[in-house]
Automatic annotation (TrEMBL):
InterPro entries: RNaseH-like_sf (IPR012337). This is Uncharacterized protein. It comes from the Eukaryota. The chain crosses the membrane at residues 26-46. Keywords: Membrane, Transmembrane, Transmembrane helix.
Length: 246
């Protein structure tokens, strides 16, 4: 293979691999320049990169709720039992190593959202600090409304990214369908289809169109930083090179 034929190198997104790459570049700079420069493009695993999109969403209320909710269930088996008794479903636990774990937990929260506030109010034996922080959100009508809107926005914005993340981590000749999935993500962003968000905004605004538009705009402002990160990565930094993590 000629040096200028090697266009890109893809690696796992784990920090230890990035450190290893820098170490190789430190000890063998001339070799790298000889073989890779100037065409080599270092690309982090697409699944890892897409997962990072969620970390760029900016929620004022939902992030606080998520931290307290996850702590409540991760530290207390009793809380998990009480929730299962009430809903008939085990609450998912957040995992720091699982892609889009935060989204998966919050997706379940939205599914059982009508049970969340009663669960917190009826069980005063829950973790006092977490319970107090969560109830503080529901005690203020405006903050509770913002939580509802932000939760819907998170689910609407994340679902396409979650599907693409797990598809692109799979085995097989994914290179032939990778571009299609990335294009589908770009299309999902472009058409701005937020069914849950719009339904929640309509529910809270009633016939007040000004408030409805305000709530939808508020939700989009929370998720747009994540969309911009994705577009910057895949439309600018990665150029037209599309290959999955294999």
């Amino acid at each position: 293979m000629q040096p200028n034929h090697l266009l890109a190198a893809m690696r796992d997104g784990a920090s230890i691999n990035e450190a290893g790459l820098h170490q190789v570049m430190f000890f063998f700079p001339n070799i790298l320049i000889m073989f890779f420069f100037p065409n080599i493009l270092s690309v982090i695993c697409y699944s890892h990169t897409i997962d990072i999109v969620g970390k760029h969403f900016e929620f004022s209320v939902l992030d606080t709720f998520s931290r307290c909710w996850n702590t409540l269930f991760s530290l207390s088996p009793a809380s998990r039992l009480l929730w299962r008794t009430r809903t008939g479903t085990a609450m998912q636990l957040h995992s720091k190593t699982r892609w889009w774990s935060k989204w998966e937990v919050l997706n379940q929260v939205m599914e059982f959202f009508g049970n969340v506030e009663p669960f917190l109010r009826e069980n005063d034996n829950l973790s006092p600090v977490c319970r107090a922080s969560l109830l503080e959100i529901f005690d203020d009508p405006a903050t509770a409304r913002d939580l509802d809107i932000e939760l819907a926005a998170m689910i609407d914005a994340g679902k396409h990214f979650v599907q693409a993340t797990y598809y692109l981590e799979g085995d097989g000749p994914l290179v032939f369908t990778c571009y299609e999935h990335l294009s589908a993500l770009a299309h999902a962003i472009a058409i701005e289809s937020y069914s849950n968000t719009e339904a929640k905004a309509c529910q809270h605004a009633g016939r007040n169109m000004a408030l409805y538009n305000q709530l939808v705009a508020q939700a989009k402002a929370c998720i747009n930083p994540g969309f911009r990160f994705y577009q910057q990565k895949f439309s600018v930094q990665f150029h037209n090179i599309n290959c999955p993590c294999i």
